[in-house]
Structures are given as C-alpha cells and as structure tokens.
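Minutes, methods subgroup
Present: GH (chair), OT, SY

1. OT presented the first of two proteins processed in the latest run. Sequence and structure tokens recorded below as shown on screen.
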Amino acid sequence: MKVPNNWDEAVGLGGKLLWVLTRIHVISLAIGAVGMIGVQLLTGFWTFRSEHQAIIRAHYEETLEAHKAFQRQIERYNSVFEGNTVQPVDAAEAFDEAAPSAVREIQGARSFDDAAQAYIREINEVSRLLPGTDNEVADYIDAITALRKFYVVNDPPEVGSLEWISFYGQFRLDLDQYIQSRDAYLEELASEVGSYWRAVRNS
C-alpha cells in the first residue's frame, strides 16, 4: 500500500481501508457468535450428559435387580427337572414395596411367560439407552424365549423315561446357550455403562 499523491488516490485508499475494516468486523462478529454458541452447547451438553448418565445408571441398577429376580424364577422352574413341583411364589417377596416395579412384577409372576415378559421389557428399556448392546440383547432374548418350551409344558415326560432324558438333554443345551448369551449381554451392558467415552457417545 503506497501513500496517496492526490485526492482520488486518498479516496480510493479510504474506501479500501473501510472495506477491510468492515470485513474484519463481520468476521469477528461471526467468530464471536460461533464461539458463544459453541460454549453454550458444550456447557449444556455436559449438563445433559451428566443427567443422561444418571438416568442410565438408575435403569442399570433396576436391571440388575430384575435380573436377580428372574434368576430366582428360573431356579424355581428348574425344580421340575428334579421331579419336584414348582414352588409357589413367596408372598412376602412378591409384595416387596421397596423393590422397583419390574422386580415386583417378576417376583409376583404366576407363570414363566409373565416373568419373562416383565424381564424382557426391563432389559429392552435399558438397552434402548445403550444401543451398543443391541446385538447382545437380541441374542439374550432369543435364549430366554427358547427356555419357554421347557417351562410351559402341560404334560412333561415322566422323570427317568427315555422321553425325559431327551427332553432334559435338549434343555441342558438351551440352558447353556442361555447362560452364554446372558453373560455376554451383562458384560457388554456393564461395559457400556462404565465406559466414559461410550457414555459421551451414547449421550
């Protein structure tokens, strides 16, 4: 930029300086606006992330309680393979007012179907918040459903008969599959809940 020698050059230089200052002002306004919006978003995001993580952890704790209740139901139904009748629901346990609603529903279930449906609703709810568990929860639900044919039987084979041996053998295979898918799901669920960066991503 050279020093103007006449009026026309001075006017042209002033126009150029005004144009440069205007562009700098507009750019600074844009940077300021983007910066302000970014700070607001980041500040709001971390607050949201903390609240979101608190909700996930609360659902996770309820899911673990529901899992314990469902495992007790499975143990109750497994007694039929020892030639025993299924024990009735413990009324004191079934009406534990301090337990989450899903746990009370599982404890008070009159059939395996009712207990399984309440439990599946609970694990679907927590897995909806943690999409990284989609594959594991699908396999787990399939394994739970596969057990139904052993627990919902009107006329089970007589204990000790050849039919019973075949029936029980197939049950053991499906139960092993259930245990494997259950452990894989619970491991992935805990990993999703406990990982900081996964929590950020899920938020």
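2. SY then presented the second protein from the same run.
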Amino acid sequence: MKLSYRSLALLVTVLLVSSFNVVAFAGEIGLEEAIAVGLNHNSDILDLQDNLESIERELKQLKAEDNWQLDLTVDGYANELNFDDESSDVEFSITGSRTYWWGLTLESELYGAGNYSTEEELSNDETGLKLSLSQNLYPSIPTEREQSYINKELDLQVAQKQLEEEKEAKIITWLGDYLNLLRLKEKQELAVQQNELALNNFKEVSAKQEINEASEIDILTAQIEVQQAQYSLKEAANNYQQAKKSFYSQLKLNIEDELLLNEDSDYLLMIKDLARAKELDLENKSRLLDLGIANSVEIFESCLEQQSKKDDLKWNKDDDKPDIDLTGSYDSNKQWGVGVSLSYNIFDSGKQRLTEEALQAELATLKRKYDDLITDLSLELDQLIDQLKLNENSLKAKELSLAKASLEAKIAKEQLKRGLIDDFELKEKELSLKEAKINYNGVEDSLLVNKLELIKFLGKVDFRGGNQIEKRD
C-alpha cells in the first residue's frame, strides 16, 4: 500500500503536535535560576540540611542543660488527725545546680519550714540558704555532657562538609544533564529537518513516477527513508521529553516553567572559563592524590572518627586515676566548711581494661578503613584521569569527522553548481554536517563535565552560596 504525500504530511503533523509539550504563556527559567531552585528543593540536599540542623539543635540542647537548673518542692501536712485543728506544717525548698565544663559544680538551696496557721507562728519559721561547690582538681576529665558536646561538634563538621560536597556534586551533575538536554533538543530539530527532507524527496519521486521517470524501487526506497526519518523523529522527541522530565524532577522545577536551553548562557560560559583556567598535571598522580585526600569528605570524616576514639581512650585512662576534688559549703545558719576529697576505685573487676581494649580495637578498625579509603581514592583518581584522556581522544576523532563532513558539504555545493548532484544530495550533506557538529559538541560537553569532576575531586574550586561558584585560592 502506497502512502500519499498528503497522508505522510498529516501523520508527521500529528506526531509533532503530540511530541512537543509546549505550554502557552509559560514562565521562562534559565540555567542559573534552575540550579538555584534545585539546591533549595532537591530531596538529597534537604535531607543533609535537616541532618545539619538537627545536630545544631542537639548542641544547643546540650548547652542549655548546663545552665542553672531550678526545682521547687513544697510539702504541707496536718500535725494531728483532728480536722477541727487549723494548724498545719509546711516545708519548701528551691534547689539549683549548675556544672561548668572546667570541672566546677555549684549547688544552692533556699529552704523553709514552719507552722503558718497564725501570724505569731509565721514569725517563728525556719528559713535559710545553703551553698556548696565542688571543683575537680585531678584528673581533668570533661563531664559526660561535655564529651557528648565535643563529639557532636565533630559530627557537625562532617555534616557541613557533606552538605557542601553534595551541592558541588549536584551542580556538576545538573550541568551535564543540562548540556545533554541541549544536545537532545538539537538532535530533535535535526530529526525534524531530516524528516522534512525525506518527505520532500518522496513527493518528488512520486511526481516523477507519474510521468514514468521513477521506478517502483525508487518509490519504495523513498518510502523507506520516510519511515526511517519518522521513527528517528519520534525517538528523538521521546528522548528529549524523557530527559526534560527527569531534569525537572531532579531540580523540582514547575512543569509550567519553560527551561531556556542556551549554550551562550553567562553562567555556563563562566563555568567553561573556570575549567579552562585550571591547568592540571595529569602525570603527577602523587600530587593529585594528595590534593584529593586533603579534599575528601570521607577522609575528613574518618580522621574525625579516629580523633573521637582517641579522646575516648584518653578519657577512659584518666577515669582510672585517683579523683581529687576541692569542696566547700556554706549555710546561712553560720555553718561553713572547706575540704579536699580523694576517691579511687581500687578494684573494678577489669572493667576499665576491657573498655580500653574495646576502644583500641575500634581505633584499629578505623585505621584500616582509612587505608581502604586511600586505596579507593587512588582508584577514583585513575578512573577520572582515564576518562578525561578517553574523551580527549574521542574529541580528536570527532574533530576529524567534523572536518570531513564540512569538506563534503563544501564539495557538494560545487558539485551542485556543476550539475553533478541534485539539491536533495546537497541537503543530505548539510544535515550530516549538522549531525557531526552535534556529536562533536556532545563529546566536548562530556570533557567539560569530566574536568569539573576532577577539579572537584582535587578541591580546586568552591561552589558557595548555592549556585555561586568561586575560585579557591
């Protein structure tokens, strides 16, 4: 069954209408703004932000617990089981305590007791103020809450680094996705042009067949080319739409917004300039690895974990030493005193030794994990360098293909002037040149992303303030 030109044109029109999801009067959003939206709404980043804020709240809570704590106690009771007797006794106390992290503990008590049934008895009440203090002299061991605070501060540093690292990784990933989306749109536009060329060719061959200047094979060949062009157009449109949906989902963009795909975006040009400005000696791997280790979030976290475990070991050893405290007390009833207390656990059934062995084993495990992280970083560096070199080689190959396609298009123009080829063949060469250019740009995009990943691995740039990238000194 033969397809008429009008039927094919109608089919293509329906295909294009169904493939393109254009929203009238939709808001426009550029790359920089899109990344800013993504950094403020991406689920992975928000989870890390929530974790950071949770640690900050816990630190504030630990601080608050070491401020003055006040308790009020009031007891009232009858002297005898005589309900006609209105006399009663009341006791009350207001106690306060505070522990300072340098080892000082303060306790105070305002107390009172008496029978308050008459005014005379009210004047005979017993009230007073007690004060006591205890200052740790030796050994100097942080309080339990202070130890928790120190460990939480280490957790906070890790959480901050993780959030910064995730933002940097997302920005680079989204840049790659944006460039891929740009190339997919170009491929879709190219597919539209190829489809139009195939339809026009089918129309011309059909016209020639009517005057017996084209054979059945010619018409079938043209028909096959139309079918292939339509399939390529639909595939290109689907690829573009799927990539666009994924990009919108990752950055939490509104579906009504129309993303501007602009290769000359100021933000994109700034990033390209940044990448070009960074000279990397790929042969000096030891230097690059040192930079990667210094910048690694995992290494940073491992070092803090080891430091935390060393602190636990030190505190455990100090806890086994004799405890010497300076004490003092004061009572408003003219009683006061100062003294020194000594306490020492002479036998704990080996508890302290077992705790120390467990901590030593945990520290040894952390050191092994640290060594494994170094090995993993070395492998990651090899992969980044290898991928960068592969893309550089691929770019050279695409550059040759682009030069060849450009030369073929130039020759085709001369051949058309001489009548050696027709207009259809020239347009085929011109579309092949566009395709070669798209392929070249695609590899160039991959090379840019690879270099950004390597720069990030080495800690050569800071991605600060959300979507603002600054050079690191």
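Chair's summary of item 2: The radius of gyration is 39 Å.
Next meeting: continue with the remaining queue.
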